[in-house]
Amino acid sequence: MVGVPNVTRADAVAALRNPLAFISERWTPAPRTVRRAALSALVMSVVIVVTGGAVRLTGSGLGCPTWPKCTADSLTATSAMGFHGAIEFGNRMLTYVLCAAVGWAIIAARAEKPRRRGLTRLGWAQFWLVMSNAVLGGIVVLVGLNPYTVASHFLLASALIAVAVLMWQRTREGDGEPRPLVGKPVQQLVWFLVVASSLLIAVGTVVTGAGPHAGDSSEVERMPLDWETVAKLHAVLAWIVVTLTFALWFILKAVDAPRGPLNRTRELFLVLLAQGVIGYVQYFTNLPEVLVGLHMLGSALVWIWVLLVLLALRERPAATVELPGPAAEATVGSTA
Q: How far is CA 271 from the centre of its chain?
């Protein structure tokens, strides 16, 4: 058996004063561990979006009628609250799983050697986004599922996904200066794609806010818009994103671009096609809950792949440390 190392009083004080530094001094994770930790945070950021959609689609948005408690007298859901209470409270509990995944990513990034401060900052950015969205989620409940707060809740979750994607990508590359792999016109086209995708997601939240799935079985305020008209605008934006993606793929093929940007663009095109099929089927079948839930998952995947296309346009090699040359060594020797 391996003996447990003795922990002195000084060690305990140091651990309480700065636990991340204490762990970092005693553990160095493998690069694969850091990548997996960042990926787990990304996966959970998508899961929480999908389960949040399940809360709305099952009419469980007010299953716990208050916040931070579930009811005025109970921190947790009770059996009397039934199915809706269990669904809504279960989604609240998944926030703690998300926090654990983000915390694991922060610890792994902080303990990596050599230390990469940029990774740690991205981990903390995720933490504060999770905390902010948890508070906003509570406000959503307190204001009775106001559609504007619900839309903000989803947009903040999309921001969390963006930071999680960036951190995951950074764990797979070095800290050297980024080098572009494509020309400036192609980079500008991709930024147009990112802006169009952001608008697509934003308009999608308006479709949700005006549509029939209010999030609770009782009467809930809706955005005073014709949801079918907004849905058609959403479809137009989707076609713009698809067209930009196809144009990008064609241009990358024409200029014989590196495999990275080309592969990510092809993958994005396939994800968009699948998302488009789901979107049209759900529209013409009167928005069945299962298809709406799949469309929410598809929205998160489209956003992830748009960001991966953007990040694939450059490479970042490992940072190099310049060693002193012979002249510098001679100078050091003469002054010793």
A: 17
